[in-house]
Design brief:
By secondary structure, this protein is an alpha+beta fold. Among the domains are: 1-10 and 12-35 and 273-440, Sandwich (Immunoglobulin-like), CATH 2.60.40.1730; 53-263, no CATH class; 712-817, Immunoglobulin-like, CATH 2.60.40. The strands form seven sheets. Strands 1, 2, 3, 4, 5, 6, 7, 8, 9, 10 and 11 form an eleven-stranded antiparallel β-sheet that branches. The N and C termini lie far apart (65 Å).
């Protein structure tokens, strides 16, 4: 069972964090904080929590009862949580209590020592990235602790009665800090702390929720950031460390660290409870307001919690939730909350199913210049439980009669009723996410034998030729991937021009940025973008990804396949090498070439490049967390470096003699086959890669997924008339059938720099002779260097190609022939 965690609430799995959204939220935050208290009390109490005990409890978790007397701490008191210690020295402790007089936390004022030392190296590096130190050791004069159960506190604190009690003036400070923490979580993360404390309490489980908030005391720091350590026993990643700077600084709410405690890989969700189907109707107005009445069917295996927390876009307000029998259920949803918590009486559950009906509404769609409406949050427009769990979507859409709704799924019915245009869409295969948009599109359909039906919906200003041009790449991509991977699972694919720079590929439903319809410069990168979105039908949809760490299995794969498509169609001979060079330069040189080819299509320009951290942001494994300072870093790693990782794998699997990539394609097809309709992790992919490589590949994945360093190779060679010594490296083409070897011997040497001592890579080297014949070898380069020594054919060498095909990501320094 997994609850909505602090991390998940900020994660937009198919669409990475956008700076613009954060800035927009910042402006609204100030205003919201003023009206927050008044509104929430009414909303929570009047509309939902009718049970007076439940209502009082929730209210007192939102606004704890703060004692007007405090307890003096004269002896040291320690709180120990995983990798985190608070030592209270001198000062006073003000208990916070709920409506049942249970202690729900405390405020401390005095001298406290705080130490946070993440157990994983990557997390210590992240701590350093954001705070300048790889461990936190600081003092705090004020701190606030919130717990779901008093057992989460040391015995001495629960038994505060034993301590010396005194009248306090700190109640106001306690109130202020509590308010700051709660608002920061709600407004910047959509996270409802009170609801989470309450559900943990109701579960009565030992897995607690513990939050410690403090301002580190640092000299010369006028705006000391609010730091939050969170231990959530029910989250997939139990330990979180967050930082939120004063609103005036305009900094985002940062996930500094987030990790699972055990070293074992993050396992998939234990599917004890999951949504299997969304069923109902969605009405959209001209102005982008959406009303929904959705039934959610759950599969449940024995697990029947008394409350469930769902993720739901903060633009959407729930008006009613009911059970199958029609009973209205109590729920809690604060303004700005990106979710809703519903309370479930025992009778709501049936043997192995649960059906809930959600009514909700809000400004969920953005209206664009041409009158089209696109979802602001293409994922959380339906209530979600768990991380992108596959479900069926059976939905009737209603919109004004001059507009049309386009959605995932097959269009089963299209009619007018009661002054609305109605459309019924139904998915054929459960989808990780369903989506839709509304507009007045001009459409063409391409129906060809042996291919699914292709619908292209564009803005009115596009010509038929432009749509045709897009359709050709969609058709060719489908053909390419069907031939090399596996059959496309649906009957049709619907491609819609999106008025933004953002593209997304849902099952059979692609919103393709206008960039993909209106080529800017070279056709190659634009064709790669179109093909990227088609590739998501296989990587992203047919197989998904387990957690945000594994999202490169979708994005990097789509990115690399898009480039391979360009290489295959070879519409521009140089396009593939240009893409490869652009990735390399984005990763290594700050992207001076990439800006024209790669990043521009995400709407990122020179300013983003200037602010990017590059390799300093961290390893590819961190997924969306890389883009927290500058979105570009997310794209550079998860898309481009990830694509380069696949390029390296392709060269490791390549038959150098025949130049065949069959093993690489078989590996991808096998990966799809083994994990079809599942959410594999990076470790799962490693296992499949190893099956095809024939050897363990820990070294490869460690170097390229979990570490940041990129090698520099210095290489040189000599050709001299000496007898040949035994060959080093792995020869795959020896030229045995050729005329006898001359006395000429080639000696090639490689030095490796800028990487850890255990770094190694096999690098392809090709000898090109004057008569056109080529011999290819792999030179394994380690900390000790690498060497190749071989007898040459008599005809003479024309060229020695080190790192053939730019097979390995690195800085290559040719020190010449000497
Ligand atoms: Zn993508």
């Amino acid at each position: 069972m997994r609850f909505k965690s602090l991390l998940a609430s900020s994660d937009t799995p198919l669409a990475p964090l956008k700076g613009g959204i954060l800035k927009h939220m910042l402006g609204a935050a100030l205003l919201a904080s003023i009206v927050l208290t008044a509104l929430t009390t009414i909303a929570a109490e009047k509309n939902t929590l009718r049970d007076p005990q439940l209502r009082r409890l929730y209210h007192s978790l939102r606004q704890p009862i703060i004692a007007d007397s405090s307890y003096v701490i004269s002896d040291t008191l320690r709180l120990d949580y995983p990798d985190f210690t608070v030592t209270l020295q001198r000062g006073e402790l003000v208990p916070l209590r709920d409506s049942t007089r249970v202690m729900t936390g405390f405020f401390f004022q005095g001298t406290a020592q705080i130490a946070f030392r993440p157990r994983h190296l990557i997390e210590r590096q992240q701590l350093h990235r954001f705070t300048g130190d790889s461990i936190t050791v600081c003092e705090a004069s004020r701190l606030l602790v919130r717990v779901s159960t008093p057992h989460a506190l040391p015995q001495e604190i629960i038994a505060t009665e034993a301590l010396h009690q005194t009248k306090t003036k700190s109640s106001h400070e306690a109130q202020e800090l509590h308010k700051a923490v709660q608002e920061a979580l709600l407004e910047r993360r959509g996270y409802n702390l009170a609801a989470n404390l309450m559900t943990r309490r109701m579960l009565g489980e030992s897995d607690t929720l513990f939050v410690c908030a403090f301002y580190p005391e640092r000299e010369r720091n006028l705006f000391s950031p609010l730091c939050l350590y969170v231990y959530d026993g029910l989250a997939l990643e139990q330990v979180g460390y967050f930082q939120y700077s004063h609103k005036k600084l305009g900094r985002p709410f940062l996930t500094v660290c987030s990790y699972a405690l055990a070293l074992e890989r993050l396992s998939q969700y234990i599917q004890t409870l999951r949504i299997t189907k969304y069923n109902g109707w969605v009405k959209v107005d001209d102005n982008g307001k959406m009303h929904a009445d959705l039934g959610c069917d759950f599969f449940t295996a024995q697990y029947r919690p008394p409350a469930l927390s769902f993720a739901l876009s903060s633009d959407l307000r729930v008006t009613r939730i009911s059970a199958e029998a029609g009973d209205t259920l109590a729920f809690v949803q604060e303004p700005k909350e990106a979710g809703v918590t519903v309370f479930l009486p025992a009778q709501a559950w049936r043997s192995d199913t649960l059906r809930l009906f959600f009514q909700y509404e809000g400004e969920a769609l953005q209206r664009h210049g041409n009158g089209s409406l696109f979802l602001k949050d293409a994922i959380n427009w339906v209530p979600r439980w768990g991380y992108l769990v596959r479900a069926d979507y059976h939905l009737i859409f209603k919109c004004p009669p001059r507009l049309r709704v386009l959605s995932t799924g097959e269009l089963l019915r299209d009619w007018e009723e009661g002054g609305y245009r109605m459309r019924y869409y139904k998915t054929r295969v459960p989808a990780k996410a369903g989506s839709f948009c509304v507009g007045n599109f001009v459409a063409d359909t391409l129906a060809q034998a042996q291919l699914p039906r292709i619908e292209i919906h564009s803005a009115a200003r596009r010509s038929k030729r432009e749509r045709r041009h897009v359709a050709e790449d969609i058709a060719n991509s489908l053909y390419f991937y069907e031939r090399l991977l596996s059959p496309y699972p649906l009957r049709s694919i619907r491609v819609i021009e999106a008025p933004t720079t953002h593209s997304q590929g849902f099952p059979g439903f692609v919103t393709l940025s206008w960039v993909g319809f209106a080529p800017l410069r070279g056709e190659g990168p634009i064709a790669a973008l179109r093909s990227h979105e088609v590739a998501h039908q296989w990587f992203g949809n047919m197989i998904g990804w387990a957690t945000y760490h594994d999202q490169w299995l979708s994005e990097a794969f789509a990115e690399y396949l898009g480039a391979l498509y360009v290489e295959w169609t070879a519409r521009e001979r140089e396009a593939f090498s240009q893409l490869l060079a652009a990735w390399r330069d984005d990763i290594l040189e700050g992207g001076h070439i990439g800006v024209s080819l790669g990043m521009q299509r995400f709407g990122l320009g020179k300013e983003a490049l200037r602010k990017a951290e590059g390799m300093k942001a961290g390893p590819l494994w961190l997924g969306f967390r890389l883009g927290q300072n500058e979105a570009l870093d997310y794209y550079t790693h998860v898309y481009e470096k990830g694509a380069y990782v696949l390029h390296m794998l392709r060269w490791l699997l390549r038959d150098l003699q025949t130049e065949s990539d069959a093993k690489f394609w078989n590996m991808l097809a096998d990966f799809l086959q083994q994990y079809r309709n599942q959410e594999p992790s990076t470790a799962d992919f490693q296992r499949v890669a190893e099956q095809h490589y024939g050897e363990p590949m820990d070294w490869f994945f460690r170097q390229w997924i979990f570490q940041t360093e990129v090698p520099t190779y210095r290489w040189s060679y000599t050709i001299a008339p000496e007898p040949a010594a035994p060959q080093v490296g792995i020869p795959v083409a020896t030229g045995e059938m050729e005329p006898p070897a001359s006395e000429q011997v080639l000696r090639l040497k490689v030095q490796q720099e800028d990487v850890p001592k255990d770094f190694k890579m096999p690098i392809p080297v090709t000898i090109e002779y004057v008569d056109g014949m080529r011999e290819a070898y792999r030179v394994v380069v380690t900390n000790a260097g690498g060497a190749l020594e071989l007898s040459l054919r008599a005809v003479g060498v024309k060229h020695v190609d080190f790192n053939t095909g730019n097979a390995v990501l690195g800085r290559i320094k040719n020190e010449g022939r000497n």
